[in-house]
């Protein structure tokens, strides 16, 4: 884990740099966005379940930015800390110690996203 304590800043930083890719490779970025929307659209699984899967994969892949983006999405979708914790438990089961270390970061990111959401509605 990169040692970040501020996932909001991390996701803003990444988003800023993704903007240049949107300019230089608009077709790729548009297709990626469309893929993301299609993959997370409600179907047999609801959007929240799909985001929990995405968070689990972000943890397994050791992607701090993925953790940041997906925890923010989970807060917007009304995920509970217990739902996140259980998804991370499965991730740890499947990914062992490295996943457990990133799961700790995912908990921090989810808690941060909850605080940020609460602060923006206050």
Query: How far is it from the N-terminal to the C-terminal residue, by CA?
Result: 31 Å
Mean pLDDT: 93
Unreliable runs, pLDDT <50, ≥5 residues? none
What helical percentage do the residues reach?
over 70%
The counted number of beta strands is 0
Count every helix, treating DSSP H or I runs of 4 or more residues as helices.
Answer: 5
- The structure class reads mainly alpha
Major sheet characteristics: none
Strand content: under 5%
**Radius of gyration computed on alpha carbons:** 15 Å
Instruction: Output the helix-strand order.
Output: HHHHH
Indicate the overall shape.
globular
Keywords:
single chain; 122 residues; mainly alpha; 83% helix; globular
Description:
With 122 residues, this protein is mainly alpha-helical. It starts with 6 loop residues before the first helix and ends with a helix. The mean pLDDT is 93.
Topology (elements, then pairings):
Elements (H helix, E strand, L loop, with lengths): L6 H18 L1 H15 L6 H14 L3 H13 L4 H41 L1
Helix pairs in contact: 1-2, 1-4, 3-4, 3-5, 4-5
């Amino acid at each position: 884990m990169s040692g970040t304590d501020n996932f909001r800043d991390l996701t803003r930083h990444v988003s800023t740099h993704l903007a240049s890719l949107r300019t230089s490779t608009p077709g790729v970025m548009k297709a990626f966005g469309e893929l993301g929307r299609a993959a997370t659209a409600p179907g047999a699984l609801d959007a929240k379940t799909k985001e929990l899967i995405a968070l689990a994969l972000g943890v397994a892949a050791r992607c701090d930015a993925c953790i940041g983006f997906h925890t923010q999405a989970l807060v917007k979708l009304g995920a509970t800390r217990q739902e996140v914790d259980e998804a991370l438990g499965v991730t740890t089961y499947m990914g062992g110690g490295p996943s457990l270390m990133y799961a700790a970061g995912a908990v921090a990111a989810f808690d941060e996203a909850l605080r940020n959401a609460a602060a923006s509605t206050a």
